[in-house]
Amino acid sequence: MTAQLTALAISCTLKPSPAESSTDLLGSQILSALAEHGVTGELVRAVDHVISPGVEADMGGDDQWPTLREKVHAADILVLLTPTWMGQQSSVAQRVLERLDAELSETDDAGRPILFDKVAIAGIVGNEDGAHHIAAILFQSLNDVGYSVPAQASVYWNGEAMQTVDYKDLHETPEKVAQATATAARNAARLAGLLKADGYPAD
């Protein structure tokens, strides 16, 4: 796949840097898998930035979402990653989804939603069930604002319930997670390349 494709991974861990993060680890693994298909990527930790509450592109004041928004617009593939807390996506992930809501009113020169022709991958980690539920929420929200979802584009790891072992504590990546990561990256790179070459029609 062409090296012109780019990816942005937004990690919605609750842990500020430099704390270790299972969510970041999964994001880095997905970016590495995308790199095998010529996709260059960057991972950002949302909690390290001031993302004000709201559904506007710029909430003013010390809001740093506009800078992250520029990265979102520039990337062909968005990898949205979240830990699982109480069976739900993190509050940080919900904040990111709410800020993306502003993109519903943005159109390109052809009159199409600004995020058309872009592709999304979901990454979820946690010591409890909820990965399928969270993936459904992420994908529906991202699709609403224009993202396309490739086949089998969610990557998740659920540890044993009510235990203390995190994804980052594992000695090696579980085979099924590695397979899911490879599949998601391959399909996302393929779809993103097709859409970049010949995107959806205008209104």
From TrEMBL:
Lineage: Bacteria, Bacillati, Actinomycetota, Actinomycetes, Micrococcales
UniProt cross-references to InterPro entries, sorted A to Z: Flavoprotein-like_sf (IPR029039), FMN_Rdtase-like_dom (IPR005025)
Any matching Pfam family: FMN_red
The protein's name: Multimeric flavodoxin WrbA
Domain NADPH-dependent FMN reductase-like: 8-155
